[in-house]
Amino acid sequence: MFRLRRYRVFVAFTVIAVLALYKFGSSNPSWRDQAAGFAPGHRDNADPQVKWEPKPQVANGPKQFGVEVSAAKNPQTKETPPPIASVARPVEKTSTTAPGKKSIPVGVGVGHGAHVEATPTPRADEAVAQAVLGDLLSSSVEPIHWIKTKEQYPVPTESIIALPTAKPKPIPKIQAVFKKETDAEKVDREAKLGTIKDVFKRSWSGYKEFAWLHDEVMPVTGSKKDPFAGWGATLVDALDTLWIMGLKDEFEAAVKAVEKIDFTTTTRVDIPLFETTIRYLGGFLAAYDMAGKTHEILLTKAKELAEILMAAFDTPNRMPQTYYYWQPGLSSGSPLASNRVVLAEIGSLAMEFTYLAQLTGEDRFYDAIARITDNLEGYQNHTRLPGMWPTYFDASGCLPHNYNTAPNKPLQKPITAGDPGWEEALKNGAYLKADPSQPLVMPAEDDSATTGDEELSPSGKKYIPLEKPPPLEIVPNGPNPSWKPPPEEAFIWPGDTKAAPKKRQLDAAGFPSDPEATPFKPTCDNPGFGPSSSGGREEFTLGGMSDSTYEYLPKQYLLLGGQVEKYRTMYEVSAEVMKKHLIFRPMLPNEDDILFSGKRYVSGAEPGETPATELEPEYAHLTCFAGGMFGMSAKIFDRPKDLEIAAKLTEGCVWSYNMTATGIMPEAFEGVACGSQKDCPWNQTLYYETLDPAHENRASQYEQAMINYEIRVKSASLWYESAMQAYTESPTPTPVPVKAGIALSAAEPTAAAGSVLDKRQLTDLEYAAPPSQNGSLNVGRESAEDADSADSPTKVQLQVEEAEEPIPTRVMPTFPAIYSPSVPLSHEDYVNTRLEEERLPLGVTRIKAREYILRPEAIESVWYMYRITGDPSWRAAGWRMFEAIDKHTKTAHGNSAIDDVTKTSPNLNDSMESFWLAETLKYFYLLFSEPGVVSLDEWVLNTEAHPFRRPA
């Protein structure tokens, strides 16, 4: 039975906590800001597993915006907290606002933009509170909105790079000429199309039911998450797929929902420029054009979003902030592009902004990305691997210094006052040698007139004497009563307005604090790209953090109708470097003639030295796009040899799917690179050496361990023999201790080591006497009367003390525990054990990442190769891939990423990224569509598989 008295303290504390949460939760602005998700990395209703990674900080401090655009305003209705009800949260229908707004219970007044959705999942920090307090914390605050401001670094109208609008140049055909299919082939193809469409519809239904207008659905639990600003990434990303698959009703419903997306607010403090551009901007533009340009809302939303993204380009060198801090106060100041920017994030914006310029006729969108291309072109042949760009480099192009400072002068040698011409040299940048007799700080100069008696500076001006504080006296027994603090005006603290600082004084930040001094402003001394650091090593790859930059070179050439030749030149230069330094043939037991693309690491070198390079024979799923890129470029640039490379790279991806238990390629694995792409025999010895490079050291270490073991055994044996001999020998007679001049016989009991005589021992002493008053024992047989007698003998006393030398206990010695070293596995056993435990296919030396997250890159290249060659074997390979993926990733609400493709029954990771509907299923569907559906001779696809119409 519940006893109130026992828990009265707890009950009182709970009541106080409830009232405090309710009070401060509805009134304290800072608390509301945190609850609304304005802290870095917070996402409203986000999944706890989604981790936020810190992004580069804004270069300068925040500054409040001063210009507003009325079109960017979106009035919101504040919600009022519901009345305190029972602890149990009632189940009720909810209506919600656009992303960034909280759900509002039905019946409460709803402002502009509200719509109906499922009950949102509470944030992790509110889950426990809601379970106890019901609806106490369901109140929300009005979200912050982005406001357009005047550009700090505008491009003059006459300097805007205009979009090429001339007639397109003739470009060779990409697609093969397909023969007419038979009736049986058509039936089989259409059946497979229907199966792929059913998988799409199941995933789309899961998104509609559980995550409508959110970024992603979690297909196992039916939850939702918002990693991409919460603007409905899956909804926008899948628009053109809905149209291609003929799901027109679903397309119309999705277009209607798009109207409710508010791009001026998000629970993220930063907007990821790359992901937002390829998914949202690309999705809107492709759907608008594919649907016949009849849904104007799609283009309107694209322009609204682009207006916000263009603000990220407002930097001194017009290079964008790849993570744009959009909130007023964070997006102001003098921001710079990152000095460690990711190549793909800045180099993969060209197609979307170019297509937007083509559809709207606004050159400024093309100008933004054309400047990036110019800088990439200038940097391409000046990297450590000329022809390619490292995964990270410096895009800021700006050095923070006083913008009107004269150029740096050459370093001068120190001079001594009195040297010939020392005054003139001092004016030109020389400096004086240190003089121990002079103060270390040069006094400031005074512009007032001189009297002729004072000491003058080299420039002929008076010195301002330095103010020194009064000396301190050391008083031994207390404070110095004569000491007084200096006058307050003697010091000027940072931020103090009581006295104006002198010219030479600096503020706390190190800049002139004089209000009339030149303000700090960053200047672009070198607007181009450069290395992030002079030391270390740089990575060059076609995989993650680089991939789409290279992909966009030939695709941008197509999108511009071949009018900008630099895109072809840049691609062809990089392609030669890729073939020489990245692409390799893996050593395989069946000697399959396939190709992989790895990573090349290049270390820094001193001028005149050749940098050290190293190939990492990795093959990543992200790199599988390269087959399609090489194949398409081989056709449009007339490079027939590259078409062979494209086929072998794509076959490498198909082989990677076939090698695992699930029939799915892992995220990344490594193999053994052959020295030649033409001749690559299987070398089991080399393969075993790669798997077990330390087998010789392991054998020698075991031999040394055995030597040490034998030495320890011999040493322990000698000790044991000695200890046993001491144990078995007769004990040495114990000498009789002498106390106070009286010897005790060996037969009499003595105190044990570390102890004193107890009562029983005292009783056993036949000459024991009662204790005396001083605590000693009277030794003798005299009576009390005899003791008082003058003629009685002198009493002898025995002091009870510890023995000086303890007598050891006789215990049989124990042989020390010595463990023999484990016998190591032989070289062959070690390799076989590793192959079995790590489930390594023959030829693979390490699987770096075992998961599959529904990636599209492999089927993308398979589709390209089918459209380019017309070979039906590519369709067969693609169907095997589709069946394997759907079998192991299928859930009730869609398809999910899996944890390990090498297991026969992998675990579901409860994640379905938007590219599953935008890319992966689209490529599978197009593989079995008629060749005229999204023909490569009419469309060019961005890196998110959004088709853009090529100029005719």
UniProtKB/TrEMBL annotation:
Pfam families in the cross-refs: Glyco_hydro_47 (PF01532)
Keywords, alphabetical: Calcium, Disulfide bond, Glycosidase, Hydrolase, Metal-binding
Cysteines paired by S-S bonds: 624-653
Source domain of life: Eukaryota
Annotated spans, Disordered: 72-107, 434-471, 515-536, 768-795
Source species: Paraphaeosphaeria sporulosa
Pathway(s) per entry: Protein modification; protein glycosylation
GO molecular function: calcium ion binding; mannosyl-oligosaccharide 1,2-alpha-mannosidase activity
Active-site residue list: 275, 547, 667, 857
Enzyme class: hydrolase
Composition-biased stretches (Acidic residues): 444-456
Cell cycle keyword on record: no
Protein name (Swiss-Prot/TrEMBL): alpha-1,2-Mannosidase
Biological-process GO terms, alphabetical: carbohydrate metabolic process; ERAD pathway
Cofactors that this protein relies on: Ca(2+)
Entry similarity comment: Belongs to the glycosyl hydrolase 47 family.
One GO CC term, this protein: membrane
Binding site for Ca(2+): 943
Entry's EC annotation: 3.2.1.-
